[in-house]
Amino acid sequence: MLKMAVCDDDLQELTRISNLLNQYHAEKEPAFQYDTFNNALDLLDGMNGNSYHVLFLDVLMPGLNGIEAAREIRRFDGEAKIIFLTSSREFAVESYGVDAFYYMLKPGTEQKLFPLLDKIFLDVQRGEETLPIKTSSGFTRIPYRKMEYVEIFNKKVRFHLVDGTEKETNGSLGDFEGPLLSREEFIKVHRSYIVNMTSVISLNQKELTTCTGKMVPISRLLATSVREAYMQFLFAEKGVK
């Protein structure tokens, strides 16, 4: 059974999301349960010995805010889907530094929340999507969501992962462009680099910074299209409307 938590200091919004979850459950009968919290410290206490698959986090809360709480959660839980709730677009880019699954503007509505829940349950049903590669120690599968960026170096393709580790295989970047670039979250930013946009926390005309602090160069010829694609992905594809 999927376990969710909703954390918001605004009682009206907390009640709104709770009612929508109840409505979704009544209409579609998926297997899930949820808990509610009105501050981040109580949520963290509630996660002591108890894990959640999905977390709805208000960004602007007194004391420990949602971004800070998410950073703390990522120290012991790298799997939970974090969905930020806020009335401002201001923190959208920062939210992806903690591998946020979604960024939804308040107020919560059926039109915003139900398609998101559909996607979450679809992901659960079909399992985690991975890319098979051959390394020096044998075949392995890398989850797409754990890839930060991919680079070609000395005829070897390196997969940099969000946990700071790397996987390496022989070949060319072109060998993997098909499966990577067919996914909405990946973009080629340089002839030697493909980046997972969910791992980008900032970018300028020359380079971008990933959630682990790596600097990845952006081709001068691609700079404008990369920025446009990233902003479209961040706001349109991830639900900031």
Kindly summarize this structure in a few lines.
The chain is 32% helix and 32% strand. The chain has seven helices and 15 strands.
Polypeptide structure, described:
- By secondary structure, the chain is α/β, with parallel strands linked by helices.
- It folds into 2 domains: 125 residues, Response regulator (Rossmann fold); 101 residues, OB fold (Dihydrolipoamide Acetyltransferase, E2P), CATH 2.40.50.1020.
- 32% of the residues lie in helices and 32% in strands.
- It has 7 helices and 15 strands.
- The longest helix has 18 residues.
Write the layout of secondary structure elements.
Blueprint: E1 2-7, H1 11-28, E2 32-37, H2 40-46, E3 54-58, H3 66-74, E4 81-86, H4 92-95, E5 102-105, H5 110-126, E6 130-135, E7 138-143, E8 147-153, E9 156-161, E10 166-170, H6 174-181, E11 186-190, E12 193-196, E13 200-203, E14 207-210, E15 215-217, H7 223-237
Parallel strand pairs: 1-2, 1-3, 3-4, 4-5
Antiparallel strand pairs: 6-7, 8-9, 8-12, 9-10, 11-12, 13-14, 14-15
Q: Can you summarize the main beta sheet?
A: 5 strands, parallel
Order of helices and strands: EHEHEHEHEHEEEEEHEEEEEH
What number is the mean pLDDT? 89
Strand content: 25-35%
Instruction: Give the count of helical stretches.
Output: 7
Shape: globular
What are the key terms here?
single chain, 241 residues, alpha/beta, Rossmann fold, OB fold (Dihydrolipoamide Acetyltransferase, E2P), five-stranded parallel beta sheet, five-stranded antiparallel beta sheet, 7 helices, 15 strands, 32% helix
